[in-house]
Design brief:
This protein is mainly α. It has helices at residues 26-36, 50-54; strands spanning 12-13, 23-24. It has a two-stranded antiparallel ribbon. The structure holds zinc ion (ZN). Zinc ion (ZN) binds next to helix 1.
């Protein structure tokens, strides 16, 4: 085993749709979400990150355009 260098810890931003400035490690983020956003993360708009949005079906109740070919972005 080599000595581990903890400078390389991944930092995450809070995925709340609110304007939450929190950033921290995965553990810190988990704790933060559980305490500050308890229950909120069950909402449909969690997590408010590009990856989170990509994982959700695109539902836009405001948009009455019957554009059907909006799914599947080749740029990913
Ligand atoms: Zn937060």
């Amino acid at each position: 085993m080599t000595e581990s260098d903890s400078n390389d810890v991944q930092i995450y931003a809070c995925p709340s749709p609110d304007d939450c400035p929190f950033t921290g490690t995965a553990d810190e983020l988990l704790e933060h979400v559980n305490s500050e956003h308890s229950g909120e993360y069950r909402q449909d708009n969690w997590p408010d990150t590009p990856a989170g949005r990509a994982g959700r079906p695109v539902v836009e109740p405001d948009d009455e355009d019957d554009v059907d070919d909006q799914r599947g972005d080749p740029d990913g």
